[in-house]
Design goal:
526 residues; alpha/beta; OB fold (Dihydrolipoamide Acetyltransferase, E2P); Rossmann fold; 5-stranded mixed beta barrel; 5-stranded parallel sheet; 13 helices; 15 strands; flat
């Protein structure tokens, strides 16, 4: 009967069980609590377990699926996983390969929300000191919302009624799997705009969405959206949901509006109120200027009452001027007379004869100096000419030729001595090298091997000096004078190698084997 039972290999049985499980269940929805989640593996895949009070099943999320999950796994979170049952033959266990993941009810979402709020609060993303004041009168307003909903129409209507401004709308999905990524990208994109660029950079941002359930608003609780709002350099107003709704982006934003319409009111002031306020300021400014002018006029009159009259201020200088003007003609006449007398005294000494005598004296002196310079130049030229003739007399071609011949002879003698010295030095070095070669040959173990001796080494190259170092069935390397042979010891009559008298292991007749080195042959000894 045993012969009729089919025989399976382990792999065949594992594959058969895998086919039965996958064919019997296919895709299923499984509810359980996440256990053993430690984040993505270095490969990008996630491994954890789903459990309830009575059982547990292993779960795996492949890397490509994990990146597209709307809800990321979290330790202790109760979820509903959709996937297929399969086996892992390498460890003989079954598991679920998850394709989608969602929290199991509002309670799980609230637990996840509170945990994420606690984590981000610990990082300081919701701190009040990080929040900035909204600009009073922005020129450009950026809105992140759906372009087809009623929210954007209500907000644009609010801007038109209160204060028309330049509005930039970044269209995004406000619900769904890609909603969080699109909202975060829109906030980052607005911040990346450069001031003065082709598209004006907003002065304030509004992230808006209408009301809905916790699941509908969940995109604005995602960590990527909260971090983008906290990192925004542009002041940001959160207007997600109705007044009773709240999300994590409300805590990270610089201001939280109860409704999208209220966010539009907060972003810009009311134009009519501004006009009224400007009118009031204008009236107050006019009244203040009138009071200021009246006060200054009164002060001016009070100050001018104590000042002297202009004619009294210039009376004394005018009198001094009249006195000086009366003395000026007489003083000019006396000054002219004084200068005329001084000129007459100087003109008497400036006769043409004195100038001619002085000019003749300078001319004679210049002629004398010119003669002295010419004679000195002539003497210097003659001395140089004589020195040049003496030098030329010593530069005969015969003397130079003789000097070159003596130098060539001296150079030839030095070259001959140099060659002789080099030959002697090379001979001494050659004799020394030959002596060292003979000494090396006499001390080398090769000469010992040529006298009939051999060197025995183990298979790892260690030299063996005693028979006790050789074990049974050991590989040996025996070096002779003309090469190496390989040998193996054989035990006879016991566990160890048989030894001859004197402690030498008994080895058999060598068998020819390929040469290991030096062109010699190898052999195994048995």
């Amino acid at each position: 009967m045993k012969a009729n039972v089919a025989e399976f290999s382990v792999s065949e049985l594992a594959q058969a069980i895998k086919r039965v499980l996958e064919g019997g269940f296919g895709h299923i929805r499984l509810r359980g609590e996440i256990s053993g989640y430690r984040g993505p593996h270095s490969s990008g895949h996630c491994y954890f377990s789903l459990k309830d009070e009575n059982a547990k099943i292993d779960a795996v999320v492949w890397r490509g699926v994990f990146s597209s999950l709307r809800f990321k796994p979290s330790e202790g979170l109760e979820v509903i996983a959709t996937g297929k049952i399969t086996t892992y033959p390498g460890s003989s266990k079954y598991q679920i390969v998850i394709e989608s993941l969602e929290p199991a009810g509002v309670g799980a979402l609230m637990a996840l929300l509170e945990e994420r709020k606690r984590q981000l609060t610990a990082e300081g993303l919701f701190a009040e000191e990080r929040k900035r004041k909204l600009p009073f009168l922005p020129r450009v307003v950026g809105i992140v919302t759906s372009p087809t909903g009623a929210v954007i129409r209500d907000m644009l209507h609010g801007f038109a009624e209160r204060f028309p401004v330049h509005v930039l709308v970044w269209p995004v999905r406000v619900q769904g799997e890609t909603s969080a990524t699109e909202v975060a990208a829109a906030i980052t994109g607005f911040n990346a705009m450069q001031p003065g660029g082709p598209i004006p950079r907003p002065d304030v941002l509004i992230v808006a969405r209408g009301g809905g359930s916790l699941e509908d608003l969940w995109s604005f609780n995602e960590e990527i959206v909260v971090r983008a709002a906290a990192a925004s350099e542009i002041p940001l107003i959160s207007a997600v949901g109705h007044e009773t709704d709240w999300t994590l982006i409300d805590l990270a934003a610089d201001a939280r509006a109860p409704t999208p319409t209220k966010a539009a009111e907060w972003a810009v002031p009311k134009r009519s109120d501004l006009l009224l306020q400007v009118g009031e300021f204008s009236l107050r400014l006019g009244a203040g200027m009138k009071r200021t002018l009246a006060n200054e006029r009164t002060r001016f009159k009070a100050v001018t009452g104590g000042l002297p009259r202009p004619q009294d201020l210039v009376a004394m200088p005018r009198q001094r001027f009249d006195t000086a003007a009366g003395r000026l003609p007489r003083a000019l006449r006396l000054n002219s007379q004084l200068h005329a007398n001084r000129f007459a005294k100087v003109a008497a000494r400036l006769s043409p004869g004195l100038v001619k005598v002085r000019l003749q004296r300078f001319t004679d002196r210049l002629s004398t100096l010119s003669d002295l310079a010419q004679r000195a130049a002539r003497r210097r030229l003659e001395a140089g000419h004589a020195r040049l003739e003496r030098t030329a007399a010593g530069l005969r071609p015969l003397a130079i030729r003789q000097q070159l011949q003596r130098s060539a002879q001296r150079l030839s003698d030095v070259d001959a001595r140099l060659q002789l010295a080099v030959a002697n030095q090379m001979g001494r070095r050659a004799r020394g090298l030959a002596a060292l070669s003979q000494l090396l040959a006499s001390l080398s173990h090769r000469s010992v091997l040529e006298r009939g001796f051999a060197i025995v080494r183990s298979d790892v190259g260690r030299m063996l000096r005693a028979a006790a170092d050789v074990s049974a069935d050991a590989l040996l390397d025996i070096e002779l004078s003309d090469g190496h042979i390989a040998a193996r010891t054989v035990a006879r009559g016991g566990d160890g190698p048989q030894t001859k008298p004197g402690g030498v292991p008994a080895i058999g007749k060598p068998r020819a084997a390929p040469a290991r080195g030096g062109g010699s042959q190898q052999g195994s000894l048995f």
